[in-house]
Amino acid sequence: MKYHTTMSKKTLMKLLGLGNTGAPGIVASAFQDLDEVKSSPAAGRKMPRWIKEVDKPTVEIDWDRMKRFDGSNIMFVNGFAQAVGPDNAMKLGGHAAETSKQSILKSEPGFTLRDKALVAGGWITSLLTTEHAFLGPGINVPADLCGIPEDLSYPRYEGTPEENTQMVRAAAKIYGAASVGVVELDENTRKLIYSHDGWDGRKWEFEDVDKAYENKKKKVIPYKAQWVIVYTVRMSQPSMSLAPSTLEEAATSMGYSEGTSVQLRLQQFITRLGYQCLADGNMGTSGNSPGFGILAGLGEMSRLNRMISPRWGPMVRVFKVITDLPLAPTKPIDAGIFRFCRTCKKCAEFCPTNALSMETEPSWEVQGPWNNPGVKTYYEKAPNCFSGWLSLGGHDCGICLASCPFSKQDKSFIHIHDSVRQVIATTPAFNGMFHKLDTDPGYGKDPEAWWNLNLPPHGYNNTQGT
Ligand code: SF4
Ligand code: SF4
């Protein structure tokens, strides 16, 4: 599919009153200062003024229809075999392994040994944290490094919920998080915690106990641990733009490893303050992290059936920990993203397996048991997607993430001008035009050239804060 427009970007900016003409335009009266930042009255969150805090997420949720999802139904565990049959799954898995091996032997660009070794390095931190993730690694940083007495002869930290949220946000950011929010667990939001852990098969349960515990059958979250700290970690867009090559996974694997590094650090921080901090394995195996991210206002639902950040689009991974440190929840946001998806459809058009919905309106109807009902969204055909991954030798595809206009920090019209995102947040009138102006497909870049890029740390620049 080709995208073109006869209107230059400069012309459009003038039309919107965002050029250098000095003429008042369509949005000029709405935004006195384009860089203005507002503070949320709850918990001190600072956001650009064009991102509105709202009482409900922009995606509709019917909590009565939602049940706790069994994590073993995800594609990586049992979901794919359930969808295509165990024999087929086995056959396709074997074919993927052979494809991967042959691509190494033939040194196919983007699938070479060098590329795959890079991805292995990206994953390693994440894998190391998996085994003892729930209660933490059981290691305390010694007193001679942090100054905290080993004998716990000190009162625990006390602060108001608002102070605590601000404190946790500051801590998570220095540890590497890009944005941080809080969701309170109640009878509805507990449904975002899975019934079973897809990684180890154990049950996730809530009990009226003082301390979290685990045994061979279950991991138990005390009801008093009723706050979810949810945070994002950025991914490298230049690496993601190599989709669908193996090298794209340099971005995702590093995202997971950085996310679990933040998790470990938060666990040490919060337990040393005198509270519990519970986590999951490297894939968010305790529950729906993007769902918590949407409720916490770190982004909006999208056609990907995943969260999109107003700043970085889908170039983030979402993680969470659960704590009994009292926290002030943060509110959902409206930056016009879910509304933009109705017009855009770019990810679905580029998807090579037709896994993403092309419908204009979201729906309550799930596509299969890999979806959890109760959200009016764009449910995806996950087995199509996963079979596409297998045809690549078992690696991520990532075309949908790379092609999203919100991903392209330097190339997309949306990201050239914050002002355009302000318009998207305010009115849908120009969404069709913005979609057409995003002419760069965003994926399929040269994987050999990537090795000669002089990328910033972690492959993304830090000029944009939250
Ligand atoms: S990862 Fe690839 S196959 Fe899967 S939904 Fe995205 S574009 Fe489609
Ligand atoms: S590519 Fe377009 S439709 Fe897809 S998630 Fe991004 S904004 Fe939404």
Helices and strands in order, then pairings?
Blueprint: H1 9-15, E1 37-39, E2 46-48, E3 52-53, H2 75-84, H3 86-105, H4 113-130, H5 143-146, H6 161-175, E4 179-184, E5 203-207, E6 213-214, E7 218-222, E8 227-234, H7 237-240, H8 249-273, E9 277-278, H9 289-295, E10 300-301, E11 307-308, E12 316-323, E13 333-334, H10 337-344, H11 346-350, H12 382-391, H13 399-403, H14 413-416, H15 418-426, H16 431-437, H17 447-450
Parallel strand pairs: 5-7
Antiparallel strand pairs: 1-2, 3-13, 4-8, 6-7, 8-12, 9-12, 10-11
Helix pairs in contact: 2-3, 2-12, 3-12, 4-8, 6-8
Account of the 3D structure:
- By secondary structure, the protein is an alpha+beta fold.
- The protein has 17 helices and 13 strands.
- It has a four-stranded antiparallel β-sheet, sandwiched between helices. Strands 5-7-6 form a three-stranded mixed β-sheet, with no helix packed on it.
- Helix 3 (86-105) runs parallel beside helix 12 (382-391) and helix 4 runs parallel beside helix 8 (249-273).
- It has one domain.
- It is globular, with a radius of gyration of 22 Å.
- Residues 302-304, 308, 340-341, 344-347, 403-406 line the site of one iron/sulfur cluster.
